[in-house]
Amino acid sequence: MGRGFRIIFATSLLLMLLDLCRGSTIGICYGRNADDLPTPNKVAQLVQLHNIKYLRIYDSNIQVLKAFANTGVELIIGIPNSDLLPYSQFQSNADTWLKNSILPYYPTTKITYITVGAEATESSSNVTSLVVPAMQNIFTALRKVGLHKRIKVSTTHSLGVLSRSFPPSAGAFSSNYASFLKPLLIFLAENQCPFMINIYPYYAYRDSPSNVSLDYALFESSSEVIDPNTGLLYTNMFDAQIDALYFALMALNFRTIKIMVTETGWPSKGSAKETAATPDNAQTYNTNLIRHVINNTGTPAKPGEELDVYIFSLFNENRKPGLDSERNWGLFYPDETSVYNLDFTGRGSVDVITGANITSSNGTTWCIASSNVSDGDLKKALDWACGPGNVDCSAIQPSQPCYEPDTLVSHASFAFNSYYQQNGATDVACSFGGAGLKVDRNPSYDKCIYMTAGSNKTATSNATAISSHSSSQSGEVHILALSYTIMTFFLSFILIIGNI
Fold this sequence. Notes:
500 residues; 14 strands; 39% helix
C-alpha cells in the first residue's frame, strides 16, 4: 500500500512539474465583426498553416467549435456581456448552456478557458454586478461534469481597472470597482484562474506622445525608465503595464494569481491623426512582442515568469465603429493574405548573429502581387510568369509548400518574385503591367520560401533552417531540455522506490 502511494505521488509530481515547464505562449484573437470573412473551416486551415496553437473567440459559435475539432488548437471561448443576466440568475441556465454549447464538442475541440463577460467596467450598461455570479454558476456547471480543473473560468479587463499604473510599483486598482473586484479576485485565487487583461501600448503612445516615446511602446527603446521606488529598469511599456498590475494585485495581498494578456497588438492603418498606425510599426511591435514572450523573459518585477499573450487580431474587422485604426488591427485581410509579414515562432525575421531585422538591413527586395489590380489582370500576369516567363510554379500547386493560402494574390506573389529574382531584381522585372509591387519585407512564410537574387530555393531553405535555431528559440529549447531531464530523473526515482 505504501509502495503504491509513493509511486502515485511521484508520478503526480512529475506531471505537475512538466506542466510548470510548458513555457509562455502566443495566441491570436479571432474576432468576426467583418464582412466577407473566410468560413470557419478555412480559418482553421489558415491558423494551422501558420502554426498558431492558441486562439481566442468571443462567443461559443457552433460552426467555429466544429471547425477546430481535431486540430489541436486550444480555444478561449466567451460569453458576451449581453448574455450575462440569465447565467447570473439561475444555475440551471448555466448548466443548460454548458450542456448545449460546450459538451457536444469537447474534448474533440480543445477548450481551455471560458471568459464570462468582457471589459465589464468599460460597458455602457451596468453589467459588473452580473459577472462574478455568472462566473460562479459557470464554474459550478463545469464542476458537476468534472471539468472545472480542465477548463478555467475568468473575465477580461481593460487597463482602466487601474487608477494608477506609473511607476509600476505604485500600481493600484480603482476604488470605483472595489465591490466588483474583491469577490472576483477571491474567486480567481481560490480556483487558480488567471487575471485576464487587455493591454495596448499603442493607445498610451497615441494619447500622450509627449510622455511616451514610440520606441518605448514598440520594444525598441535603447534607454531605460527607472521605477524610483524599486530601482527596476524598464525598456518597454508592455512590461511596465504588466508589472503595474502585479503590484496592484500584491497590494491587495493576492500574490498567487497569474496574469494572462488576452488582447494586445498594434494597428496597421489609422486616421490622419493616428500617424503611428502603420504596417511597419505593427510588424515591429508584434514581432518584438512574440520574441519577448517566447523567450520567457518575464518582466523586471517577475523575471522568467510565464506569460500567455494573445495578439489582436486575426483579421481586419470593417464593421467596427470608431476611428480608422479600430478596423485595422488584423494580421490578415479577409482574402487570407497577410497585412504584413509576421513569423509567429519569433524566428523568421530576426538575424541570428545581430538580432537585426534581416528583411530590411541588407537592401534585399522582393516582388509581390498588388492587391489593387483586377483578378483578370492578375491571372494574365500569373499565367505569363508560369508560361513564357519560365518560372517554376510547382511550389504553388496543390499539396506543395506555397499552395496555401489558395488565393490568386498569394500564388501570383510567389511567381512574380521568382521571375523578378531570376531577372536581376530590376524595376522592369517587377512591372507585370502594373500588377507587381516591390517590397523590402521578406514575404516568406512557414515552408514557403521566396528566393532572392543570386540564390536558389535549396540555399534559401537551408538559410531558413539555420535561422530556426536562433537565440529567439532558446527558451523553447531550454524548456524541452528541462522537461526531458525532469522526466528522466523521476522515472528513475519511480523505479527506485518501486523496489523499496
